[in-house]
């Protein structure tokens, strides 16, 4: 009996070969867990502060204006320098005022001469009227003329004083010590016509002041704590001034002014604080941040600000669990201190959070974590009795 062998189609043979080749390939490796950095939350006492942004100004701001009309002859100071009280700043052409003073003095001399002649007439007529040698009316007229001439002398004397005063205004002097600004006028400029022309400004910058506004609620908290501190320690709350470059002004400040009313449109009130500024580093017109610590939050939980994710008004952190998986946990942040954020609720001491790489994580994913530490830059300022040294709070994130 013969067996008939039937050849397989070519396409079936090709499929079989490919299937055998696929079986020999290895399965793709599973993806590696993402690399992240995690740190144990920081626990320490944190000052509860009130902060506001304000603009610096001199403790005294003086406008230097022309008090008489005339042409500027010279500008006698260096712009941006410190000037002393009584220092010459500007010279206005004095010649018109010297001429006015000369006329006033001549008028005074004439009035004094007329008064002298009137007095002589009264002295001459007085014994004659007693003897009825002249009429009483003639004598009374001489007395009235004497009184009129005396008044004329007083008026002429006042005119001389006024002319001398105007002449003195041609030398514009610094009314007080301070830092002078740029000049608004130069030699040849006509000033004082119709108004007192602004010439320049002088600012007293030691101490330097800063004005800022606070919401009504924050003001009430600060005012009550400040009164409590005055009773307990005899001093105001210590105030810090943070400058535009992030540095802390080395001298503590104190409140010097609170406005009489709250602005009903904004619900804020204006305050002013004063800071020693012996080197004159801080100038008027700078922006700074005022910070006053009025309480202490004990054993607060802190994390770096970049470890907190914000989405539509909710805040979350990635908590690293013991099995190296991630839990996205909602938290309630509080005050910020340096680069750290106080977490009021949602985290406990001893827990670890992802501080780098949190953006690429999903809940429940396993991660490969490098454990780092949150570096605390030093103790935060405490609301303790005021001292001569400024207090500061500086914190940094993990190294």
What does this entry look like structurally?
This protein has 4 helices and 19 strands. The chain is of the alpha+beta class and 399 residues long. The chain has 3 domains: 38-56 and 205-372, Elongation Factor Tu (Ef-tu), domain 3 (Beta Barrel), CATH 2.40.30; 67-92 and 173-196, OB fold (Dihydrolipoamide Acetyltransferase, E2P), CATH 2.40.50; 95-168, Helix Hairpins. The strands form 2 sheets. It has a 15-stranded mixed beta sheet that branches. It has a 4-stranded antiparallel beta sheet with strand order 6-5-3-8, with no helix packed on it. The chain is elongated and about 140 Å long.
What's a quick, concise take on this entry?
The protein is α+β, with helices and mostly antiparallel strands. Helices cover 26% and strands 36% of the residues. The strands form two sheets. The chain has a 15-stranded mixed beta sheet that branches.
Largest sheet: 15 strands, mixed
Distance separating the two termini: 89 Å
> From the helix content, strand content and strand pairing, which structural class follows?
alpha+beta
**What's the Cα radius of gyration?**
43 Å
Poorly predicted segments: 20-24, 377-399
> In total, how many beta strands?
19
What is the N-to-C succession of helices and strands?
A: HEEEEEHHEEEEHEEEEEEEEEE
Q: Helical region count?
A: 4
CATH topology descriptor of the largest domain = Elongation Factor Tu (Ef-tu), domain 3
What is the name of the CATH architecture of the largest domain?
A: Beta Barrel
Strand content: 35-45%
């Amino acid at each position: 009996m013969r067996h008939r062998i039937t050849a397989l189609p070519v396409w079936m043979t090709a499929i079989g070969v490919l299937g055998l080749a696929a079986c020999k390939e290895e399965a793709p490796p599973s993806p590696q867990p993402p690399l992240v950095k995690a740190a144990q939350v920081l626990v320490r006492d944190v000052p509860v502060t009130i902060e506001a942004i304000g603009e610096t100004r001199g403790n005294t701001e003086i406008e230097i204006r022309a008090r008489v009309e005339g042409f500027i002859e010279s500008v006698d100071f260096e712009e941006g320098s410190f000037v002393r009280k009584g220092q010459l700043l500007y010279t206005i052409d004095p010649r018109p005022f010297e001429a006015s003073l000369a006329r006033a003095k001549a008028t005074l001399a004439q009035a004094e001469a007329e008064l002298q002649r009137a007095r002589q007439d009264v002295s001459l007529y007085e014994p004659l009227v007693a003897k009825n040698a002249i009429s009483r009316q003639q004598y009374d007229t001489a007395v009235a003329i004497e009184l009129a001439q005396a008044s004329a002398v007083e008026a002429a004397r006042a005119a001389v004083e006024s002319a001398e005063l105007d002449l003195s205004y041609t030398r514009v002097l610094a009314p007080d010590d301070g830092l002078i600004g740029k000049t608004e006028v130069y030699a040849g400029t006509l000033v004082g016509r119709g108004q007192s022309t602004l010439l320049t400004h002088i600012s007293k910058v030691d101490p330097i002041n800063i004005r800022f506004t606070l919401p009504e609620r924050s003001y009430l908290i600060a005012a009550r704590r400040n009164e409590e501190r005055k009773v307990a320690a005899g001093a105001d709350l210590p105030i810090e001034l943070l400058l535009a470059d992030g540095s802390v002004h080395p001298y503590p400040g104190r409140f010097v002014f609170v406005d009489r009313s709250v602005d009903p449109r904004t619900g804020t009130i204006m305050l002013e604080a004063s800071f020693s500024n012996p080197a004159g580093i801080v100038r008027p017109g700078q922006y700074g941040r005022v910070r006053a610590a009025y309480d202490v939050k004990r054993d607060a939980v802190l994390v770096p600000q970049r470890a907190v994710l914000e989405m539509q008004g909710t805040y979350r952190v990635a908590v690293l669990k013991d099995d190296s998986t991630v839990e996205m946990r909602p938290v309630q942040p509080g005050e910020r201190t340096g680069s750290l954020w106080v977490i009021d609720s949602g985290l406990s001491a001893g827990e670890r959070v992802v501080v780098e790489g949190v953006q690429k994580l999903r809940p429940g994913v396993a991660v490969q974590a490098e454990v780092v530490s949150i570096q605390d830059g030093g103790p935060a300022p405490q609301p303790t009795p005021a001292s001569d040294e400024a207090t500061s709070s500086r914190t940094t994130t993990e190294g």
